[in-house]
Structures are given as structure tokens and as C-alpha cells.
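Researcher: Here's a chain I'd like modeled. Treat it as a single chain, no partners, no ligands.
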Amino acid sequence: MTKQELRKWIRVEKKSYGKEELKSMSDRVVGLLELHPDFIQAQTVLLYNSLPDEVSTQSLLEKYSGVKNILLPRVVGDDLELISYHPDAVHVGAFGIMEPEGAPFTDYSSIDLAVIPGMAFDAQGHRLGRGRGYYDRLLPKLRCKKIGLCFPFQFLELIPTETHDIPMDEVIQ
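Model: Modeled as a single isolated chain. C-alpha cells:
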């Protein structure tokens, strides 16, 4: 399948699950992340503010805000800018995603762990995004460990890749 066909298939597949099923799968994936040694040790963590059809990071934001330096992306033009998350400083941004407010975080070398969403991942850590390339432009700047989060049905044997695609070091599903 092409990337476009895979995205369409994943969207259809997601709709075959009810909210409670997705929440249960999401809670399991987030629980595994919380037990991961790299997450436990990390002081500065890049997360994402999840969309309704993604593994939910809401509990992580609530639980670890103030405990870890949580960074969230904000869409600025064609790029993602990283901002330190504070629960009282967010607004609805691009694509209806809650985005952080504040000064850009630019010390990429101090990020200990990046937790990345995707439409699909494969066993080699390859990631299929939503198609706009935001993470494709951000990932080359990160030198930390990268963990992809997905529902089990989003973990595929193989997804198409291009030379600019940066694989995850690990995928939790």
C-alpha cells in the first residue's frame, strides 16, 4: 500500500473501535511508557497533546506537569516549535490541537526523551505521519531517544519509507 492508502486504512480501522476500547488500549500503552526506564529517568520529555484518535497523553500531562519539564509542540507555519507545558497556558491552535503558550524552547540537546505520535509504525521503528511533514522536519534536530506510541492495530509489518524518514528507537503499542 502507498502512504496515502495506509492512512486511509488506519482511519477506517480506528472507526471500528468504540471510545471505551480506544481508551482501554490507550491506558495500557501509556502505562507501559510510564514503566519504561527511559521515561522514569527523563527530566525533560517531549510529549504531544493528543488528538481524540491518538493514544491519549492527557494523563501524562496532568501527572507529570511540575515533576518533569514537559515540552509540547506548537505549529508555526510549516514547522513545530517546542514550548514548555504549563496547564494554565494553553489555547486551541492549528488543527484543533491544544497548544502551549510561551517562549520557544530551543535547547534540543537537553531533551532526554521524545514521545512521538504517528498514524502507523513498523518493527524497524519507521513512522507514518499524517502527511504534512511537521515531525519529519523536527526529528532531525533531536538527539535523544525517540519512542513512538500507537494502538496495536497501528503497528504494521512494514510501512513505506523515504530517505528523509527518521525511525523511532522504540515503539510502544
